[in-house]
């Protein structure tokens, strides 16, 4: 059976020693009173909830899965899931970073995201139920009418109701311009919505009495394509004027998907037969409103893989210290045993350190993005808010795609540490691999994220936002460029930062002549950008560790941080050279292949 220990020490390191979040919050009236002790206390309790309440349900939830009653269209979740959710509500966890106006606690996004990392390590399938609710809350909070906010936000904030996002249709995945679900206006200002949605995570379950579905659909006179999409709130049960629940709405679960992983989450096929909904935002501008939820979900998906990378690493490390196989190539290490623990073998250490480096780098990036969102929402300076929003937009596809790709690499590496025991269910490792695999697909496949990064976020504004991140790198290089002890961390990012300008210009020029060149280079480009971002944060973490050691701090945590940083720059970061070469290979070798793919 696997185990999980919340990585509170590393979270505290990133928040308080690298990012110094409480110093940042002093400039934000909403969070000015938030201090280190408060954050640490909340996350300590959050870690207990994750480790003690949801983690024990991970394997059993995977084995049992969800069950649909085809007569009533109701879904039963795995044993213990509903009870865990009741404890989640009892603890006030849904309200953590929500607006106090609707019953929220008003805490920083950084705190909420750190809590969600632990939940994802403990049980990704369970965590998706409240996670999607938070996205629905954000979309309604940003674009809902006063009446919609009054009706739905307090229930979502308290956790009394949950939410979903309903985009995908059987014929329509990423290309939402193809969706066919129809919305007919009614005399009372509501809409009758008819269509079919598939792959709806947490689309039906037994946690709560009502589910708030956010549904994309077309009005009768809507333009074709993505410019003709509107967003609607479609509750499972009608809500009466006094806030109580009325009759069942015309939306129900027609089937559950049978999946590779996340078996504990109800991935529903939803049927809408004249379901009554209300318009969110303006007609035909539903994607703008839904993107609030989608972008939150994309960062959330990165957090899912971060959580799985961490828990897989913890279990692989413990196994490698205990499992004995063969002798060390450089001589016996455990003379009192018939063989040495496998952690003595170089390649086992490489697999472990790969997972550790990707977990800790991902943690630094996601916490930085969370801090940027706090700035965007609550900083009094308009320029600071604007800059933060632009950086979040740039980094969101990297969080989603780079961290989930790394999660695939890391969970597979950790399963490999177990050898044959990793392939069987007993140790729980194969579940981490299976559960992570969806993270590379949904909320826009990682190829779509790559096209978004290169085509829209970088080339779309001539690299202006990329240059803003480049300034952060340049500032660190200038600050530490003459420090010999930092050279092994600074020189690689300084070089890649310079190369990135030429690399981006070259791909952009080729793409201007032939747009397929952007499509051919995008995935490799995102991974190069991901390493630049990770390299920046690993250099910052090494900077703090070196300063602590120089000041006489003997905590082995700092030495471990330096060792992991050295591994990252020596063994993982050099991938960028190959990626730039393959990106430059161009589109011809992919598209001039009709005979090969006949």
Walk me through what this model shows.
The protein is of the alpha+beta class and 598 residues long. It is built from 19 helices and eleven strands. The protein has helices at residues 8-18, 21-25, 36-54, 58-64, 81-90, 109-143, 146-158, 286-322, 346-378, 382-417, 420-423, 429-437, 446-458, 464-480, 487-513, 516-550, 556-572, 575-584, 588-591, and strands at residues 67-69, 74-76, 162-166, 182-185, 191-201, 211-217, 230-235, 237-239, 245-248, 251-256, 267-280. Strands 3, 4, 5, 6, 7, 10 and 11 form a seven-stranded mixed beta sheet that branches. Helix 14 packs parallel to helix 16 (516-550). It starts with 7 loop residues before the first helix and ends in a 7-residue tail after the last helix. The mean pLDDT is 97.
Strand residue percentage:
5-15%
Biggest beta sheet attributes: 7 strands, mixed
Rg calc:
24 Å
Number of strands: 11
**Which spans have pLDDT < 50 for at least 5 consecutive residues?**
none
Mean pLDDT equals 97
Features:
598 residues, 57% helix, globular, alpha+beta
């Amino acid at each position: 059976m696997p185990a999980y220990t919340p990585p509170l020490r590393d979270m505290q390191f990133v928040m308080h020693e690298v990012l110094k979040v409480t110093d940042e919050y002093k400039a934000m009236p909403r969070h000015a009173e938030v201090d280190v002790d408060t954050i640490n206390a909340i996350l300590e309790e959050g870690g207990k909830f994750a480790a003690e309440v949801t983690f024990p349900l991970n394997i059993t939830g995977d084995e049992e899965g969800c069950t649909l009653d085809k007569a009533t269209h109701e879904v039963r979740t795995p044993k213990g899931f509903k009870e865990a959710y009741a404890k989640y509500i009892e603890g006030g966890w849904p309200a953590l970073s929500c607006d106090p106006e609707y019953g929220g606690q008003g805490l920083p996004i950084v705190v909420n995201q750190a809590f969600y990392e632990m939940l994802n390590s403990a049980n990704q399938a369970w965590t998706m139920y409240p996670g999607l609710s938070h996205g629905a809350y954000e979309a309604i909070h940003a674009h809902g009418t006063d009446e919609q906010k009054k009706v739905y936000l307090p229930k979502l904030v308290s956790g009394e109701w949950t939410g979903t996002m309903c985009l995908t249709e059987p014929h329509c995945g990423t290309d939402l311009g193809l969706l066919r679900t129809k919305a007919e206006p009614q005399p009372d200002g509501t809409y009758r919505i008819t269509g079919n949605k598939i792959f709806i995570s947490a689309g039906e379950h037994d946690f709560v009495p009502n589910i708030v579905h956010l549904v994309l659909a077309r009005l009768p006179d809507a333009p074709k394509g993505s410019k003709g999409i509107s967003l609607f709130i479609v509750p499972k049960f009608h809500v009466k004027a006094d806030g109580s629940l009325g009759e069942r709405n015309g939306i129900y679960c027609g089937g559950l998907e049978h999946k590779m992983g996340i078996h504990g989450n109800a991935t529903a096929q939803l049927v809408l037969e004249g379901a009554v909904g209300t318009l969110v935002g303006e007609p035909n501008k539903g994607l703008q409103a839904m993107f609030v939820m989608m972008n939150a979900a994309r960062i959330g998906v990165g957090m899912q893989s971060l959580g799985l990378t961490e828990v897989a690493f913890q279990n692989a490390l413990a196994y490698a210290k205990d499992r004995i196989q063969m002798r060390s190539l450089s001589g016996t290490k455990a003379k009192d045993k018939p063989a040495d623990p496998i952690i003595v073998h170089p390649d086992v250490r490489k697999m472990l350190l790969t997972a550790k480096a990707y977990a800790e780098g991902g943690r630094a990036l996601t916490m930085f993005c969370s801090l940027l969102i706090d700035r965007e929402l609550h900083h009094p300076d308009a320029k600071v808010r604007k800059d933060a929003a632009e950086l979040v937009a740039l980094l969101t596809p990297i969080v989603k795609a780079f961290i989930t790709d790394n999660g695939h690499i890391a969970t597979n590496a950790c399963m490999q540490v177990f050898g044959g025991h990793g392939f069987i269910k007993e140790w729980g490792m194969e579940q981490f691999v299976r559960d992570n695999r969806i993270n590379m697909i949904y909320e826009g496949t990682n190829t779509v994220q790559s096209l978004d990064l290169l085509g829209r976020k970088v080339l779309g504004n001539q690299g202006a936002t990329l240059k803003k991140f480049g300034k952060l790198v340049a500032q660190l290089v200038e600050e530490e460029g003459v420090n010999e002890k930092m050279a092994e961390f600074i020189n690689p990012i300084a070089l890649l930062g310079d190369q990135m300008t030429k690399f981006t210009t070259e791909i952009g020029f080729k793409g201007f002549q032939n747009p397929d060149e952007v499509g051919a280079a995008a995935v490799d480009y995102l991974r190069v950008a991901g390493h630049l971002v990770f390299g920046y944060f690993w250099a910052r973490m090494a900077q703090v560790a070196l300063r602590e050691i120089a000041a006489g701090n003997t905590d082995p945590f700092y030495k471990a941080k330096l060792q992991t940083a050295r591994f990252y720059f020596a063994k993982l970061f050099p991938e960028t050279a190959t990626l730039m070469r393959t990106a430059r290979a161009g589109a011809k070798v992919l598209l001039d292949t009709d005979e090969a793919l006949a």
